[in-house]
Amino acid sequence: MKKAKPFRKLGAQEALFVELTEKSNGAVQLAVFFRICKSLSVEELMKGMEYLHNLHPMLRSRVEKNPHPYWFCDVGFQAIPIEIKHDALPLNYQEEFKRLGGKILELDKYSYRFTVYVNEHGNVKWVAFMVSHAAMDGRSLLLLVRDLDRYLRGDSGYKSTAPIMKKSVVEYVSSIKHLKKPQAAISGDNYPSPKWAVEQAVNASLRRGCSIYRILPKESYDHLYLLSKRENVQITSIYNAIAIIAARSLPGFRSTAELMQPINAQFLCKRQIDPDVIGACTTTLTISLSSNETSLDLLSLAHLIQKKIYLQFRSGNFFESPLVPDYNFVEIEHLAKDFSTAKDYFPSGICVSNVGDIIAYTGPMTFIDFGVVMTVQTHGAHPIMLVTCTINGEGVFVFGYCEPLVSKESALRYVRKYMKILSDFSESNDLHANH
């Protein structure tokens, strides 16, 4: 039998995500739950899923280490684990996220699996993807949902081939010369790492990835959006500021803070990465906040965060060693192992990702009307991760955390605080007030 040829070597961030998944109890596995709003049988769904599997190379991917990790894109659809669940409706998102997140992907065999939730009439009501974040990011999952909807509605204009990422995101971003500005652009922003305390320090085998989501009604979101325009501040910066202010409710809160924001690298590499590619195209920015800065009012903090992110963006500092193009895999393994050990603090700060308007990104969909995305947080890096978006005008806020580093009670208190600040800010500001 002829041996399969590798697609390419994993990039540094991809290799780290693979190691985190394997060493930290499924960490950074990426889950998307989406709701089906039209009559759809399991057989019809499976045809659509097999079509997508054969279309996109990264859905056929697996990882082989010898000794460095390489992508192979030779996995058949029949090798993908598929679960059909009856009598599981209405969907209990919190329980299902925890259950599915605890099932670790066998990345040497496949890079995703999915669960189908069926009602008493045999119709599909929900589908949950669990994918390797090394292979795909949240943006990719939205594209898969879009492509599935197109297939199900018989879109005859859909492509029969799909673009690929010939290099990793670290290689793409590291090659952008115009972003490499002097570090002095963000001088004065190098505060000591805050190291917020965990509630209970345990190693990765005892951690559980958890998630909660909440909805902001369309009227409230519309008002919030208009407020952001009036105040000349991005709505993402408002979300970031509230994330820091709400964190005062966490037991381990410290007045100095760190904020991480994922960035779609396609905006940085517009001529290099196809907008329809399925792959891991995400990089991150991290900013520090002093105790004086975290005590600011919401709008002042939002403006400050916006300025800091802009300066950090212009600096071009997206990756640090060992996440470099010519990486040392042993260093990656050691870094992942360090995340898996019991610590009494979080290595990083709160992470906030605003995906934006889903329908503006995917176009109108016929079979799918709602969805949520979150990564499994068992690496223990962040006290809280927040993924936000809008779907059909409503604001969707998905919170991720790791038990017992953060207790369920503390997470729920944080969620209540966040949504109250968000609602109060929107409702207490008069758009017609004189400024």
TrEMBL record:
InterPro entries noted in UniProt: Alcohol_O-acetyltransferase, CAT-like_dom_sf
Gene3D superfamilies, alphabetized: Chloramphenicol acetyltransferase-like domain
SUPFAM superfamilies in the record: CoA-dependent acyltransferases
PANTHER family: ALCOHOL O-ACETYLTRANSFERASE 1-RELATED (PTHR28037)
Protein name stated in the entry: Condensation domain-containing protein
Species per Swiss-Prot/TrEMBL record: Microbulbifer okhotskensis
